[in-house]
Amino acid sequence: MTTLSAEARFSLADPAALLRALCEHLAEHHATVSEREGATLIALDASHAVLQVAEGVLSARVEAPDLPGLQAMKLAIASHVIELAPPGSVAGISWEGDGSSPSLLPDFQLLTVTGTELLTPHMRRIRFRGEDLARFDSLEALHVRLIIPPAGLAEPAWPMLGEDGLVSQPPADRRPVVRKYTIREIDVAAGTLAIDFVLHGDAGPGSAFAERAAAGDLIGMAGPGGRGLREAERYLFLADETGLPAVARMLACLPREAQGQAFLEIADAQEEQALDAPAGFVIRWLHRDQAAPGGTPPLLQAFEELDWEQDEPGLYVWAAMEHEAFRQVRAAARQRLRPARDQHLIVSYWRNGLSEEQHTLEKKAAARAA
Fold first, then answer.
1. Which pLDDT tens digit goes with each residue over 113-127?
2. CA 346 to chain centre
3. What is the pTM for the complete model shown?
4. Domain endpoint, select from 100, 126, 159
């Protein structure tokens, strides 16, 4: 088997501290980290990196069996070095070896719109066709990044990986926006998938695309990422509209003998959907009616009103919602869940008053501070 490789050196004030932070971060994202003969090894899928520290320098050698794997590992190392180092302290990154020419993102996928369907007054399903979709057919990584070209652009321009291993964007007038979504349905054999879009009154980029999308439109997709379903004895799902597509997909794919509850916060009764769930699941729709989304969270009240015995089977809690609701639900869950028996994934999908870019930067800053 041919092995591709590339090397780079990063000048840093404290390379050992940055290497520790890099390993911790990538381990949280399913990388395998180990030590061998004074070097640190990081493995992601079939690719790996060997990192070594010298005075003022972090050196990295990455290897992979194919070009997408090599580019993905170069991006993982270079982007996180930039992110974790003090702002402006890393410059002039240069990789030597294979894959030095600019290329599309290693996980980029081109999709073509095949049709749309209005599920509720504020939820539209868009169906796409693409190739090589097998890696997206996973309940452990539900999220994808949609790369949405500006409206009316005849020739979409996509982000590229530069010689430094980092993402370079097209000019501002042709630059796409990136938004995270959840695959709602996927058929790998047929080469099709569907994504549900919340239609917002403020017409953000994703909502605006969903309003105008028509058969034949092109869009980019990258991923998958995020964390999703885990095997458990019983389940508890809590989500607002933004997390509803993920919950719906997990419910449809659970074993038919699975048991649990799902609390789903929506605007009103018109936003309810028919969900394919195991017979042992209780689905409760929580209507905000005239209340604005992201206010006093009905999801928190529903969680606090739950009553279960301490000797009940282990529970997996999956929750996604607005940031303030997330903060309160996460705090309540940490008080109530049993560390030895229960698992949870509680995440913030959006924040009132912030764009997705601002919210992402805020979460990254919080992670760096932690």
1. 999 999 999 999 999
2. 13
3. 0.81
4. 100
